[in-house]
Amino acid sequence: MFHNQVTYSTNSNRQSIAAMDLNNDDMPDIVVAMFGGSTINIFFNTRNGTFNKRMSYATGTHPLGVALGDVTGDNKADIVVANNADYTVSVLHNVGDGTFLSQSTFLGQTAYTAGAYAQAPIVADLNDDKRPDIVAVNGDSNTTSIFFNAGNGTFLNQTIYAVGSTPSSVAVCDVNLDTKPDIVVLNQRWNSVSILLNVGNGTFLDQRTYTVGNMPNSLAIADMNLDTKPDIVVTNWASHTISVLLNAGKGTFPNQISYTTGRHPVPLAVLNLNGDNKPDVVVANSGSNNIGVFLHR
User: Fold this and answer.
1) How far is it, in rounded angstroms, from Cα 194 to Cα 198?
2) Which domain holds residue 141?
3) Which Pfam families match (predicted)?
4) Cα atoms in the 13 Å half-sphere on the side-chain side of 150
5) pLDDT score for 168
6) Measuring CA to CA, which residue among 225, 185, 191 is closest to residue 208?
7) In 32, 135, 145, 176, which residue has its Cα 20 to 30 A from 65's Cα atom?
8) Which of 216, 71, 223 is nearest to 148 (CA)?
9) Of the residues 162, 191, 214, which one is the last residue of a structural domain?
């Protein structure tokens, strides 16, 4: 089914990866955040599935998460990095010429203060002004930071919302179907998920929390029961389970359904594996050295 892997050298201790067309050649390129090197590595697609030698750009200290999106409105994808050790979010603006063989270059980072141990950035329009904003979670501050786009890819100082203990992952989705994007946060030490509902203009209600298993690790949002409402799926590292939180309407998730996995499940993916148009779940079990597949009934 697949050719043997082709490997590309990176710097030390990579932590996050994202892909998007960075130079407007309609081919996805790869960006890797290098936690140990405090850089990002970029690999440009050569159109035949191979990638050029990496290019590196400095970030803040210990980047722990990378997101891609056109934050300046110039039709070139920019890079957003959460820097874990210096409590910032960096934006690297793409000033490339859009040709593949030419070097697509990025301006030096612009850093914005976030909370302690910032991670897992997402680029999304949270206030319906047609400009993408940034949201990240702060693992030691127990908060989420929102940076609203002020135009031309510059961002206002962070707006902070309290979440649970040790947030590690965040997603943006309209969970109550009011056409406004809401925020979903995974809280590792609280063994919970926080929902922050968007009430308009990018302001959010205080969190509402829902219990999941022990040490939740990974988060996905999908319509699991085919009722057109987005549900939440979480892997629970310490309880060796996945939790499915079904959306009861208006963005509420009162009951979890648990399924046993292998030992210490970490990442998960939700997709239709068998062509029946129903979402299935795949988890990687780090303690069992295997993967688990849950087919939808």
Assistant:
1) 13
2) 1-162
3) FG-GAP_3
4) 7
5) 92
6) 185
7) 176
8) 71
9) 162
**CB distance 155 to 74 below 8 Å:** no
Structure tokens at 177: 């179907």
HEC-encoded secondary structure of 5-59 = CCCCCCCCCEEEEEEECCCCCCCCEEEEEECCCCEEEEECECCCCCECCCEEEEC
What are 290's strand-pairing partners? 285
The pLDDT score that the predictor gives to residue 18 is 92
Could you tell me if 131 and 181 lie in one domain?
no
Residue 48's pLDDT is what? 82
Which pair of tokens denotes residue 227?
């009722």
Q: What is the pTM of this model?
A: 0.91
How many Cα atoms within 13 Å fall on the side-chain side of residue 110? Answer: 17
Could you identify the residue written with the tokens 């998960």? 268
Q: What is the pLDDT of residue 105?
A: 61
Report residues of the chain scoring pLDDT below 50: 97-103
Please state the domain count of the chain: 2
Residue 192's SS3 state is strand
**CA angle 105-106-110, nearest 5°?**
170
pLDDT digits (tens, 9 = 90+) for 167-194: 999 999 999 999 999 999 999 999 999 9
Q: Are 39 and 11 in contact (CB under 8 A)?
A: yes
CA distance 131 to 195: 23
Decide: residue 7, CB within 10 A, 0-12 exposed, 13-18 middle, 19+ buried.
exposed
192 plus 121 within the same structural domain: no
Q: What is the pLDDT of residues 51-104, one digit of tens each?
A: 887 888 888 899 989 999 999 998 989 999 999 899 999 999 888 743 322 345
Do 252 and 141 sit in the same domain of this protein?
no
